[in-house]
C-alpha cells in the first residue's frame, strides 16, 4: 500500500513541471532475493563471497520495473519497520563495519585494514538534533548515550544500511545513496556515504498539511527532478560524449572517459580489478584501462590503471607521493609509474546537498582519482625460482624508499606487481598502492592506517600507535613471501577452512589475536610451503626461524628494560 501511495504522489509531482529528467516507481518486493556484489582478488571474483538478501522495497527507474532483479537497478532502498532488537542491531553494525566475507576468504588485494587512531567522542556531535551523524567505523568512539545527538541504530536501520551498501557496491561509481525507513505514519530519510550515515528526524507523512508530509514531497520531487550527481551518480564516469545517463549501467566497462589534461588524453575502461564493497572506508575502485595519450583511436594505447578512492584530505595524495619519488631516476625500477590525477567530491560537500548547510565531518575525506601504469599481479610469477627474485626486488625497493625518505607501510601480496622487459624476457618487480605511505620525518596528523592484516608487523598488531620502523617493512615482505608459498598453486589461490593460515583470521576483529597466531606460526616445525613450492621449504623454514630467534632476543630486552613494547634495533 505504501509503494502504491508513493507512486501516486510521484505521478502528481511529475505533472507539475515538464519535462522531468526521470520517471521512477516504488516496488514492494516481498520475497525477491537479490545477489550481493562479490569480492575481488588477483583481478578475479572470489568464489563464495556473494550471497543473497531480500530488500523490502526499492525505488527504480520506470523502465527498470518490469525486469527488476539486481542491486545495480536500485535508486533508493526502502526498509519497513520491524520490532527493534538492539543486540542484533549491534552485531549487524559490526558486520557492516568489518567485511563479513574476509574471515572466510581473505582475498589478497582487499583485506581488512586496521586503523591506528581513535576519534574524540565529542567529534561525533552533529550540528543539531535533526542532523545525526552515525558512523559505522571501528575507529569511531560512539557518542555518549546522554548526548543530544546520540542515536542507537535499530535492527531496521542496520538492514537499510546493508541495502545501501549493496546499492553502492553494485555500481562502484555511486558516491552516496538515499534510503527510507517506513514506520507508518512516519518515514525517516537516510543519506549513506563512505563515511557513515546521516538521518532526518522521523517525518509524519499522513497529515497532508503537516511539515513532515511537505518534507517528504520535497524528497520525492528531488528524485524526479535533481541531476544525476545529486543522486550519487559520479559525473567523472559519464560518457565522453556528454550525453546524460538514460538508464542504469550494469558496470563501467567499455565506457570512455576524457581526461582534461594533458591535451586530448582519454581512458577506455576494460576490466574491473578491485572493488571494496564495505559501506565505510576508502571504497577503492580499480579498473584496468587503455590510456589514449592523443585521443581515443589515435596511436597505440598504453595499459593503465584507474583508481578512485576516498582519502583523508590531510593525507598526501598517492599521485603527489609518486611524483616526488619519480624525481629520482632509479624510481622507475622500484615504484609504479603515474600519469594523471583528479580531486573530486568531499564528504562534506556531498552531505551539504542533503540539507545540512555546514555539515560537521570528522576526518574529512575527498574522492581522488589516480591513473597509473598497469602492473601484472605478483602471484602470476608463479614458479618457485621466482620467489627469491621477488624478495630481493622488494628489498631493493624498500632500500630505495628509505633513501628517498619514505615508508610504504602496506607491503602485501596485492601491492606488489611486475612488468615484462621487452626483448629479453626479464621482469621488473615494483611496489604499488602508496595510499598509506608516509615520509619518514613526517609528523602528519592524518589518521593513517598501517597495513593489511595478514602482512602487518607483529609490533603494529600489538601496538598500532608505535612509530613506524624500517623493520616493519621487511617483516611485511617476509609475511608476504610466507603467504605466497603456502596459499598459491601455479598463480591461483587455494584456500579452505582446513588451511593452516586460517588462524590468522579467527576472531580477526581483535588484532592482538592475529599477532599471537602469527607468532605461533613462526614456531612451526615444518609445513611452510605447499606441494607446488616444496623445494623452498628449507629456505622458508630458515626465514621463519631466523625471525623467531630475533623475536626471542627482543623479548629478553623487553624483560630487562621492563618495557613490554620495546622494539629492538634488529627488529
UniProtKB/TrEMBL annotation:
Stretches the record annotates as Disordered: 98-152
Protein kinase domain mapped to chain residues: 269-571
GO molecular function: ATP binding; protein kinase activity
Name of the protein described by the UniProt record: Protein kinase domain-containing protein
Listed InterPro entries: Kinase-like_dom_sf, Pkinase_fungal, Prot_kinase_dom
Top-level taxon of the source organism: Eukaryota
Biased composition (Low complexity): 101-119
Amino acid at each position: 500500500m505504501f509503494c502504491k501511495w508513493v507512486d501516486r504522489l510521484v505521478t502528481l509531482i511529475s505533472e507539475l513541471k515538464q519535462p522531468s529528467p526521470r520517471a521512477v516507481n516504488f516496488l514492494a518486493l516481498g520475497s525477491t532475493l537479490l545477489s550481493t556484489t562479490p569480492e575481488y582478488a588477483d583481478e578475479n571474483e572470489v568464489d563464495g563471497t556473494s550471497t543473497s538478501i531480500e530488500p523490502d522495497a526499492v525505488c527504480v527507474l520506470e523502465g527498470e520495473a518490469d525486469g527488476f532483479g539486481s542491486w545495480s537497478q536500485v535508486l533508493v532502498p526502502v526498509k519497513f519497520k520491524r520490532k527493534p532488537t538492539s543486540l542484533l542491531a549491534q552485531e549487524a553494525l559490526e558486520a557492516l563495519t568489518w567485511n563479513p566475507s574476509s574471515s572466510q576468504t581473505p582475498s589478497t588485494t582487499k583485506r581488512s585494514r586496521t586503523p591506528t587512531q581513535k576519534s574524540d567522542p565529542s567529534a561525533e556531535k552533529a550540528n543539531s538534533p535533526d542532523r545525526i551523524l552515525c558512523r559505522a567505523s571501528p575507529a569511531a568512539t560512539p557518542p555518549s548515550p546522554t548526548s543530544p545527538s546520540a542515536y542507537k541504530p535499530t535492527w531496521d536501520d542496520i538492514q537499510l544500511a546493508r541495502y545501501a551498501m549493496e546499492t553502492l557496491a553494485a555500481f562502484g561509481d555511486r558516491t552516496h545513496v538515499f534510503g527510507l525507513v517506513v514506520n507508518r505514519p512516519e518515514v525517516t530519510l537516510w543519506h549513506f556515504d563512505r563515511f557513515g550515515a546521516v538521518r532526518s528526524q522521523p517525518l509524519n507523512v499522513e497529515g497532508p498539511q503537516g511539515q513532515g508530509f511537505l518534507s517528504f514531497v520535497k524528497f520525492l520531487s528531488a528524485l524526479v527532478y535533481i541531476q544525476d550527481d545529486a543522486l550519487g551518480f559520479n559525473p567523472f564516469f559519464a560518457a565522453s560524449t556528454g550525453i546524460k545517463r538514460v538508464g542504469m549501467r550494469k558496470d563501467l566497462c567499455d565506457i570512455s572517459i576524457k581526461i582534461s589534461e594533458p591535451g586530448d588524453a582519454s581512458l577506455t575502461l576494460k576490466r574491473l580489478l578491485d572493488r571494496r564493497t564495505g559501506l565505510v572506508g576508502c571504497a577503492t575502485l580499480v579498473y584496468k584501462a587503455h590510456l589514449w595519450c592523443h585521443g581515443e583511436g589515435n596511436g597505440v594505447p598504453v595499459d593503465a590503471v584507474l583508481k578512485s578512492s576516498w582519502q583523508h584530505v590531510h593525507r598526501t595524495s598517492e599521485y603527489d607521493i609518486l611524483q616526488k619519488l619519480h624525481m629520482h631516476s632509479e624510481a622507475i625500477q622500484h615504484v609504479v609509474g603515474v600519469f594523471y590525477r583528479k580531486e573530486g567530491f568531499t564528504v562534506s560537500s556531498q552531505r551539504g546537498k542533503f540539507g545540512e548547510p555546514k555539515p560537521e565531518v570528522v576526518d574529512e575525506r575527498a574522492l581522488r582519482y589516480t591513473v597509473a601504469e598497469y602492473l601484472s599481479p605478483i602471484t602470476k610469477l608463479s614458479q618457485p625460482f621466482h620467489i627469491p627474485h621477488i624478495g630481493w626486488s622488494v628489498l631493493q625497493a624498500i632500500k630505495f624508499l628509505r633513501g628517498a625518505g619514505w615508508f610504504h607501510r602496506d607491503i602485501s601480496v596485492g601491492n606488489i606487481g611486475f612488468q615484462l622487459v621487452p626483448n629479453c624476457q626479464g621482469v621488473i618487480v615494483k611496489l604499488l598502492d602508496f595510499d598509506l605511505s608516509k615520509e619518514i620525518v613526517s609528523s602528519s596528523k592524518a589518521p593513517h592506517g598501517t597495513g593489511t592484516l595478514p602482512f602487518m608487523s607483529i609490533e603494529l598488531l600489538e601496538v598500532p600507535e608505535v612509530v613506524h620502523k624500517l623493520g616493519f617493512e621487511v617483516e611485511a615482505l617476509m609475511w608476504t613471501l610466507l603467504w605466497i608459498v603456502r596459499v598459491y598453486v601455479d598463480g591461483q589461490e587455494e584456500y579452505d577452512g582446513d588451511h593452516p593460515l586460517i588462524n590468522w583470521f579467527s576472531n580477526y576483529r581483535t588484532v592482538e589475536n592475529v599477532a599471537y597466531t602469527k607468532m605461533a606460526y613462526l614456531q612451526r616445525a615444518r609445513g611452510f610451503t605447499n606441494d607446488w613450492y616444496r623445494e623452498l621449504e628449507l629456505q622458508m623454514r630458515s626465514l621463519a626461524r631466523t625471525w623467531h630467534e630475533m623475536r626471542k632476543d627482543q623479548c629478553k630486552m623487553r624483560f630487562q628494560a621492563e618495557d613490554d613494547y620495546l622494539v629492538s634495533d634488529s627488529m
